[in-house]
Amino acid sequence: MNQNAIPDALLLLAPGCPHCPAVLEGLSGLLKEGVIGRLEAVNIAIYPQRAAELGVRTVPWARIGPFELEGAQTPAELRRWAEQADSLDGMADYFFQMLTSGRRARVEEMARQEPSRLRALVLLMERPDTSMAVRLGIGAVLEELSGSGLAETMIPDLGALARNGDALTRADACHFLSLIGGQEVVPWLRACLDDEDKEVREIAIEALEELEQNQ
């Protein structure tokens, strides 16, 4: 692992927590191996203000790089998040977990912190095992961020996907481009007008008409 990519970790724990010792042991092992660079463990019975600052209500709670993890984690899971902390694939895995566990707000929060993370949502769209529920979640994230300009980082990737994915993925990509809006999406949507799939063409037509009306 690149030294610059080695993440730090923070663990909040409390006396009587049944899963805290195992998570602490797992993170300590990663620290000894050099998989994480630093480990800070905080007993919230002594420092409750730290939990309040982070909005943490349950322990164990760990943060490895950008990833916040609640509850029991196996050593393998902790290692996986640590090793993926600096990768777009890792962010895609994390967003998948957030979207499938009803924590869409966490995805939106992380996108506002660093908009380039939204490119991980395009990776999710490319995965054959991505469910309709996750695709709907991606759309909901983009609707929430609509007009903010934060999702513009996704435009080139979505535009390419709108031309090269399967019919469902192309349709979703066109729809997501329409949610992002702005003049930058226009060339990509116009390219979709020649798509062989009727639904893709219809989405592109409606999106272009709406953009023209909003000018």
Describe the structure.
The protein is α+β, with helices and mostly antiparallel strands. The protein has two domains: 3-83, 3-Layer(aba) Sandwich (Glutaredoxin); 88-213, Alpha Horseshoe (Leucine-rich Repeat Variant), CATH 1.25.10. It contains eleven helices and four strands; from the N terminus they run βαβαββααααααααα. It has helices spanning 20-33, 48-54, 75-83, 88-100, 104-113, 119-126, 132-145, 155-164, 167-180, 186-191, 198-213, and strands at residues 8-13, 38-43, 61-64, 67-70. Strands 2-1-3-4 form a four-stranded mixed sheet, with helices on both faces. β3 and β4 (67-70) form a beta hairpin. α9 packs parallel to α11. It is elongated. The mean pLDDT is 95.
Beta-strand content: 5-15%
- Under CATH, the homologous superfamily of the largest domain reads Leucine-rich Repeat Variant
What is the straight-line distance between the termini? Answer: 48 Å
Low-pLDDT sequence parts: none
Produce the secondary structure layout.
Layout: E1 8-13, H1 20-33, E2 38-43, H2 48-54, E3 61-64, E4 67-70, H3 75-83, H4 88-100, H5 104-113, H6 119-126, H7 132-145, H8 155-164, H9 167-180, H10 186-191, H11 198-213
Parallel strand pairs: 1-2
Antiparallel strand pairs: 1-3, 3-4
Helix pairs in contact: 1-3, 4-6, 5-7, 7-9, 8-9, 9-11
How would you briefly describe this protein structure?
The protein is α+β, with helices and mostly antiparallel strands and 215 residues long. The chain contains eleven helices and four strands; from the N terminus they run βαβαββααααααααα. It folds into two domains: 3-83, Glutaredoxin, CATH 3.40.30; 88-213, Leucine-rich Repeat Variant, CATH 1.25.10.10.
